[in-house]
TrEMBL record, chain A:
Species this protein is from: Lichenibacterium ramalinae
Annotated localization: Cell inner membrane; Cell membrane
Molecular function terms from GO: transmembrane transporter activity
Membrane topology per record: Multi-pass membrane protein
Name of the protein this chain belongs to: Amino acid ABC transporter permease
UniProtKB/TrEMBL annotation, chain B:
Chief location of this protein within or outside the cell: membrane
Family: Belongs to the binding-protein-dependent transport system permease family. HisMQ subfamily.
Residues of the ABC transmembrane type-1 domain: 18-206
Coiled coil: none
Protein known as: Amino acid ABC transporter permease
TrEMBL record, chain C:
Predominant localisation class: membrane
PANTHER family for this protein: AMINO ACID IMPORT ATP-BINDING PROTEIN, GLUTAMATE_ASPARTATE IMPORT ATP-BINDING PROTEIN GLTL
Protein's name according to its UniProt entry: Amino acid ABC transporter ATP-binding protein
UniProt cross-references to SMART domains, sorted A to Z: AAA (SM00382)
InterPro entries per UniProt: AAA+_ATPase, ABC_ATPase_HisP-typ, ABC_transporter-like_ATP-bd, ABC_transporter-like_CS, MetN_ABC_transporter-like, P-loop_NTPase
Top-level taxon: Bacteria
GO CC annotations on file: plasma membrane
Cell compartment(s), UniProt: Cell membrane
Record-stated family: Belongs to the ABC transporter superfamily.
Lineage: Bacteria, Pseudomonadati, Pseudomonadota, Alphaproteobacteria, Hyphomicrobiales
Length: 234, 219, 243
């Protein structure tokens, strides 16, 4: 092996890489918050509203979960303009990630809701809670607490999948790395650095989510959130 | 450049490209399965440093984007003198990615075999290898089937990332057709539908297996 | 000649010492019952005897084998020492026949035909010849436990250890398991049993060992022990059991 590593090139393009890193953080944060909110709303609608709503939500969830994120991005970024709706690369990424994550979090929260026992709900009603109170305190919050580790794993997967947005020229970390490597021809160093940054982001995100879990649910849930959960739905 | 409209020949081209999606999936599950199985066993080994190494490997693979694995093997190794064909780079990357996730899924399955099964077989004078082969793994396999099929869906979808190094599978074929027809909405809708045709039955199969595992007998 | 010799055995789980110097022996062909409250260390002692738990001090010799940390030696010991657990621990993915023949075939390298003959023989002994092809989940708890006993017997052990084998069973199913054990005792098997079945211990075991707080508190011929306990702890233990 005669190849000489030159990591000095990274310093030269530091600003580009940091800008990309920051955009990755931004689009991940926004889509995680929005995707989870939509997920909770959709899962709740699904469990409370009628048959039609349930079928509509299930269809959405299955369509998203059974098609690649990349193709979803293509449809939004190239397809929507063709249908007369022009969207920028960052907006397309945000829409794509939110729509994708919403489907997964709907599915995860749904599984949590369905794990709540009927007797719990009856106990809540017996205590004189209103239907909304029962739903909030007896169904939804315990459900979310139960599936919090699975949600956390999905958040990390989404953050990592944001690298795919480089394919529609969203200028996040992977796109920044691609730009730097096209300028410097130092592919290995650049992508190694980007990989290290993603790893740091993933570990950091996990740590933050564990702290958030500690704050929201207490010690047990937080500890579970530190360990990756890989399920059929992941 | 001649522009075509999206018609049967283009549709047929997309359908044919699905074979590469399937081949990449098979490479990921086959290669990733072999490596992942070894890592899973290392993860539950009684040797401390082996457990730690396997755990680090899993955390590493699960902590970086599949796309980075792909770029590192394609561009990185190429620069270092290993010129990889896209199919080789894509196949290796998919296998590496698969191994990290399969190892973790299977570790869970091995550990969910009740501890008394270890004691029962141990007190019948079996070696560790015999315990794995005759008692633990056959039971772990049953538990592993539903989540493994579920993970196969993730793999099928993630093979689309190979298009980003120019490997012509279904997603890349869609781009090529789109470049020729300029009908992105129609083209990518068809591409999505073709992925759905592969993934949805697998998802349902995983769900069905999962239900059968919980409802049925333990055998 | 003693088939089991336990000499000054100490065992701790972390800082908790559960066995505080146990010395005892069991003659060949004898049946010894280990009784005592939960937490007295009796199950731990039994598990130490085939190396499922390691000991920190002392020595155990059983069926001519010393209990060691050496894996290969421990496996040789285990081919001569059978153990049956409270939770049966049958292999759920194997038929009754395969449960029984697995270890003889892969550990003792017995041929298929011979293993099958042995399986038929031990199943007849526990009265379950008709369950040859059944799977564990098709059997009652009592039947599963009898298969577990047969599975151990198929290794042709010199000593059999029974760890509360009827504790998980419904009361109406314990009889069939105890009957099998009584028959084994009559046939001259050296047996050590941790049990809560006082009547059974008194009738079948020639010797009973009462354990209390990690020590042997009282031991001797079963009849004497049960009919005229020498220590107040033993007396109270029997009384609370009858109640």
């Amino acid at each position: 092996m005669t190849y000489a590593f030159q990591f000095g090139v990274l310093n030269q393009y530091r600003d580009q890489l940091l800008a990309g890193l920051w955009l990755t953080v931004e689009i991940s944060a926004v889509s995680i918050v929005a995707g989870t909110a939509f997920g909770i709303v959709l899962a709740s609608l699904r469990s409370m509203a009628g048959r039609g709503t349930r079928i509509a939500v299930d269809t959405y969830v299955e369509l998203i979960r059974n098609t690649p994120f990349l193709v979803q991005l293509f449809l939004i970024y190239f397809g929507l303009p063709a249908a007369g709706l022009r969207v920028g690369a960052v907006t397309a990424a945000l829409i794509g990630m939110t729509v994708n994550l919403a489907a997964y979090s709907t599915e995860i929260v749904r599984s949590g809701i369905e794990a709540v026992h009927r007797s719990q709900i009856e106990a809540g009603e017996a205590l004189g809670l209103t239907q909304v109170q029962v739903y909030r305190h007896v169904v939804l919050l315990p459900a979310i607490q139960k599936v919090y580790p699975a949600l956390c794993s999905q958040f990390v997967l989404m953050m990592l999948a944001s690298s795919i947005c480089s394919a529609i020229s969203t200028g996040e970390l992977t796109a920044a790395a691609a730009f730097v490597q096209s300028q410097s021809y130092r592919s290995f160093e650049v992508y190694l650095a980007a990989t290290a940054l993603y790893l740091a982001l993933a570990l950091g995100l996990r740590g933050m989510l564990a702290l958030l879990g500690l704050w929201l649910f207490g010690r047990r849930a937080a500890r579970r959130a530190l360990v990756p959960v890989v399920e059929a739905s992941a | 450049m001649i522009f075509h409209t999206f018609g049967w020949p283009q549709f047929w081209f997309l359908v044919q490209s699905m074979q590469w999606t399937v081949i990449l999936t098979a490479l990921a599950l086959g290669g990733g399965g072999i490596v992942g199985f070894g890592v899973a066993l290392a993860r539950v080994s009684r040797i401390g440093w082996l457990r730690l190494a396997a755990g680090t490997y899993i955390q590493l693979i699960q902590g970086i984007p599949v796309l980075m694995i792909l770029f590192l093997s394609f561009y990185g190794l190429a620069l270092m003198g290993f010129q990889l064909l896209p199919i080789v780079a894509a196949g290796i990357s998919m296998a590496v990615y698969g191994s990290g996730y399969l190892a973790e899924i299977w570790r869970g399955c091995i550990q969910s075999v009740p501890k008394p099964q270890w004691e029962g077989s141990e007190s019948l004078a079996m070696t560790r290898l015999q315990q794995y082969r005759h008692v633990i793994l056959p039971q772990a396999l049953r538990i592993a089937l539903p989540p493994t099929v579920g993970f196969a869906v993730q793999v099928v979808k993630n093979t689309s990332i190979a298009s980003l190094i120019g490997f012509v599978e279904l997603a890349r074929a869609g781009q090529l057709v789109n470049n020729a027809t300029f009908q992105p909405f129609r083209v990518f809708l068809v591409v999505a539908a073709l992925y759905f045709v592969i993934c949805y039955p697998l998802s349902q199969l995983s769900r069905w297996l999962e239900g059968r595992l919980h409802a049925g007998s333990r055998r | 000649m003693p088939e089991v010799v336990v000499d000054g055995v100490h065992k701790s789980f972390g800082v908790v010492e559960v066995l505080k110097g146990i010395t005892m022996s069991v003659e060949r062909g004898e049946v010894t019952a280990l009784i005592g409250r939960s937490g007295s260390g009796k199950s731990t002692l039994l598990r130490c005897m085939n190396g499922l738990e390691s000991i920190q001090k002392g020595a155990i010799t059983i069926a001519g084998h010393a209990v060691t940390a050496d894996k290969a030696k421990l496996r040789r010991l285990r081919t001569d020492v059978g153990i049956v657990f409270q939770s049966y621990n049958l292999f759920p993915h194997l038929s009754v026949a395969d449960n029984i023949t697995l270890a003889p075939r892969i550990v003792k390298k017995m041929g298929r035909g011979e293993a099958r003959t042995v399986a038929e023989e031990v199943l007849a002994l526990v009265g379950l010849s008709d369950k040859f092809g059944a799977y564990p989940d098709q059997l009652s708890g009592g039947q599963q436990q009898r298969v577990a006993i047969a599975r151990s017997l198929a290794m042709r052990p010199k000593v059999m250890l029974f760890d509360e084998v009827t504790s998980a069973l419904d009361p109406e199913l314990t009889g069939e398991v105890l009957a099998v054990m009584e028959r084994l005792a009559r046939d001259g098997m050296t047996m050590l049993l941790v049990t809560h079945e006082m009547g059974f211990a008194r009738r079948v075991a020639s010797t009973t060992v009462f354990m209390h707080r990690g020590r042997i508190h009282e031991s001797g011929p079963s009849r004497d022990l049960f009919d005229a306990p020498r220590t107040p702890e033993m007396a109270q233990f029997i009384r609370s059991d009858i109640k």
